[in-house]
Amino acid sequence: MSTSITAGSLAAEPAFLSKERIIAKPGFNRWLVPPAALAIHLCIGMAYGFSVFWLPLSKALGITAPVTCGADIGFFEQVFSSQCDWPISMLGWIYTLFFIFLGCSAAIWGGWLEHAGPRKAGVVSALCWCGGLLISALGIHTHQIWLMWLGSGVIGGIGLGLGYISPVSTLIKWFPDKRGMATGMAIMGFGGGAMVGAPLATALMGHFASPTSVGVWQSFVAMAAIYFVFMIGGALAYRVPPTGWKPEGWTAPAKKTSNAMITNRHVHVNVAWKTPQFRLVWLVLCLNVSAGIGILGMASPLLQEVFAGKLLGNDLSFSQLDATQLAQIAAIAAGFTGLLSLFNIGGRFFWASFSDYIGRKATYFVFFALGFALYASVPSLGHLGSVALFVAAFCVVLSMYGGGFATVPAYLADLFGTQMVGAIHGRLLTAWAAAGVLGPVLVNYLREYQLSIGVPRAAAYDITLYILAGLLVLGFICNLLVRPVADKYFMTDAELAAEQALGHDKGADGSTVLEWKAAPGSKPLAIAAWLVVGIPLAWGVWITLQKTAVLFH
Q1: pLDDT at res. 455
Q2: Residues of the chain whose pLDDT is less than 70?
Q3: What is the structure's pLDDT at 7?
């Protein structure tokens, strides 16, 4: 009987990209999965660093100076014109499209991902992200900005969404004992993508630049090839545990009042978004991200305008600085931006790991309470001229911004169970898209309004910072209202079994082994996998640290 089953199973071997094909066998080392996720996240995280292309692309035709469009050429004519250079405002739409389509694709295809598995989703993500870069390269070569919007913004944005959520459910299932740390490791890679990609892009543009080209389209092609290798490698390295797997010797914590927020049952994605808990966590993420994302985008002008000459040891206002002094404080502000990036990345791992000890709800209480105190005190620190405390406050704020992203998948798993957490997380990312509009609009437009009514540049951000502090109070209240999910929302045993059948969840080769330690021989492979992603990330961190050194001179 066993022989016929084996023969039948061999005859019907699962497809190469299918979820059944990547169910791990006893002895598999779970520490091979986070590097696979990092390989994808470090590539798609370059979305944060696309601004490195704006200045060269704004003079793609003129090479040394932009070829400006005539006054009679409107916006839509510029979209299809190949006779004049693109203003940075038009290029910036790519950044907006990135995060709109990231949120939408994650929400729309999150359920498909749970059934198809992370390998197939990772491959589709690689095709979309890298294919989008190639379409953008064609758009630059032919000087058609709509091709850039379509390639990187729309198709690349879809790749962002699928790549971002592809490892979430898998990592949470591999690390039931360290949910926060596991997702923090992967999502840290998304924050670090620009740290690796931006200096790489700068080096490539320098290599390909010539008297007739700024070298951007060639850089896009090269980066598409590099990213494709890393992303496909990451996708093929994914493995999922058999249903019910746990690390050897680990026992799920008993249900106590202290961990009442953690469920052992599961809510379907189509039901989860209708619950009050989903709406509250959506607001929690949106408000936390709104407060951080607006500041992240304005970090450089914020430091320069608030402190101006104080950064150079004098009391001159921003308008009194000469060209040389402006260049000096711009370099200092660039170091400040780099420092914030480091804390953004570090916060993703630190806070998500910390949440494993104090709980997800308590972690968000820290974000909102500490964030409120810091935002409310920053204007006073600015007026006192305390650069060190001002910088330190924003470093902590940005660490919590990153921590909010990394902690929320585990928060969702605690509330809704692990069966469809990837799909639920995908729908929750619409909060990111909303915050991507709300935060920058608040910061940018309030600053412009303050300047228009004569408020000095050094005080132009005060009202904005107080409003952002108010958003964090609202977030605190929303988090306070989160309660365990009511029994009526959970799947019945029959519904769960049907969902697991759709998701092709089963034991490896029909095995009943659901608890194991990593095979001793897997350790060298795990070390090699971590080196593959760790070396580029360490290089990016080193480059960033060199830029931040100017802050301490």
Answers
A1: 87
A2: 1-12, 254-260, 503-513, 553
A3: 42
pLDDT value at residue 509: 46
Map tokens 């920058």 to a residue.
Answer: 440
The SS3 of residue 418 is coil
Per CATH, the number for 259-500 is: 1.20.1250.20
**Centroid of chain to Cα 388:** 28
Q: Tell me if domain 22-65+79-246+517-548 and domain 259-500 are identical in fold.
A: yes
pLDDT of residue 513: 61
Tokens standing for residue 350: 């630190």
What's the pTM? 0.87
379 contacts 469 by C-beta, under 8 angstroms: no
Three-state secondary-structure class, residue 176: coil
What are the distances in angstroms from CA 51 to CA 93, 448, 531? 11, 22, 28
CB 541 within 8 A of CB 189: no
Q: Is 26 helix (H, G, I), strand (E, B) or coil?
A: coil
Q: Are 218 and 133 in contact (CB under 8 A)?
A: no
Pairing of strands 515-516, 246-247: parallel
What pLDDT is stored for residue 249 in this prediction? Answer: 83
The pair of three-digit structure tokens given for residue 132, joined into one six-digit string: 């989008």
For the chain, the domains span 22-65+79-246+517-548, 259-500
Residue 508 is predicted with a pLDDT of 42
Domain 22-65+79-246+517-548 has CATH 1.20.1250.20: yes
